[in-house]
Amino acid sequence: MTVHEIISELKNRSFRPVYLLSGEEPYYIDMITDYIMKNVLTEEEKAFNQTVLYGKDTDAVAIVNSAKRYPMMASYQLIILKEAQQVKDIEKLAFYAEKPLKSTILVINYKHNAYDKRKKLYKAVKSSGGAVMESPRLYENKMPDWIKSWLNKRNWNIEPEACMLLVEYLGTDLAKIANELEKLIISIPGQDKRITLASIERNIGISKDYNTFELQKALVQKNVLKANRIINYFAKNQKTNPVNLTITSLYFFFSKVFIWHFIKDKSSRNIASVLKIHPYFVSEYELAAKRYNPRKTAMIISWLRDYDMRSKGYGNSSATEGDLLKELVYKILH
After folding, report:
1. Are residues 156 and 83 in the same domain?
2. Do 177 and 65 fall within a single domain?
3. d(CA 83, CA 112)
4. Quick one: 241 and 303 in the same domain?
């Protein structure tokens, strides 16, 4: 089942006896778990009928014993098993899942990996009318659309550059991104309902002018002055702009530029698909490929690996992080 199908059923108060929620992306797992905890039972019913268990502190026998109890003065009892991946004998829950009590709702919150479909518990939950949901981690190229979709549901929108800046700094952690978007919505005054680079700088503290995204653009344009301004800013603000993260970001960028050179079908759609980037930024990679031929790009990737090791102390005894970054950027530009 999808997250939307499960939430839709829950809103209609149609409950499954067992929910097996698993995957690498915890955001949707926690969303469904939290919704069930807040909405299935009333506050009065929760006192006697809601139990929260944690994987590291329990085992299958204790979970089954809890699940086999009958509700007190309520239609359902709710058992929430958090961090279920830490239950060592979790497969033993299959015996309960084959014939679960209709008056018990058991939520299995299993994170970090999708539950193995070949296992007995997975098959038992499915065959007995339970709900199985897999929550895969999103790739970075999917994040801009996810952010726009999240905001559109709240009648907000975002500038493409602002969107990519959030992805650049927050990565693919959906919970972290959603939390920052919530802060922005609360903080931005007026009726504009639009997130810009300026509003991100004001409310989150990410500089709209001095960030790895802008450094990347400066290198693509071979804008020496702009690139030097950014790396000088990074050198003075190393806590918020650590050199290893900058190098990692540039490494991923130039690795994709290198791949671009060997893609036969250079249509925007195919480039976006192969490189796993948003179509909006295909033109930037095209320009980078024109400015940096395959040989130069391969050299840059080699330098980035070397400077990454040096930034961690290997083969470097005296140069500061700022000095390393300045030296690296000089080599890339010249």
Report:
1. no
2. no
3. 9
4. yes
Could you give the CA distance from residue 302 to residue 251 in angstroms, rounded to a whole number? 9
On the CB side of 229, CA atoms within 13 Å amount to 11
Domain boundary among 150, 174, 203: 203
For the ranges 59-63, 157-161, 255-259, 263-267, the lowest mean pLDDT is seen at 157-161
CA–CA separation, 215 and 213 (whole Å): 5
Tokens of 205: 């503290």
pLDDT, tens only, 249-299: 899 899 999 999 999 998 988 998 888 887 878 888 999 999 999 999 999
Name 152's Cβ contacts closer than 8 Å, sequence gap at least 6: none
| Parent domain of 321 | 212-333
- The pTM of the full predicted model, rounded to 2 decimals, is 0.72
CATH number at residue 27: 3.40.50.300
Q: What is the 3-state secondary structure (H, E, C) of the chain?
A: CCHHHHHHHHHCCCCCCEEEEEECCHHHHHHHHHHHHHHCCCHHHHHHHEEEEEHHHCCHHHHHHHHCCCCCCCCCEEEEEECHHHCCCHHHHHHHHHCCCCCEEEEEEEECCCCCCCCHHHHHHHHCCCEEEECCCCCHHHHHHHHHHHHHCCCCEECHHHHHHHHHHHCCCHHHHHHHHHHHHHHCCCCCCEECHHHHHHHCCCCCCCCHHHHHHHHHHCCHHHHHHHHHHHHHCCCCCCHHHHHHHHHHHHHHHHHHCCCCCCCHHHHHHHHCCCHHHHHHHHHHHHHCCHHHHHHHHHHHHHHHHHHCCCCCCCCCHHHHHHHHHHHHHC
CA atoms of 42 and 36, how far apart (whole Å): 11
Q: What digits encode the pLDDT tens for the residues 107-133?
A: 999 998 999 999 999 999 999 999 999
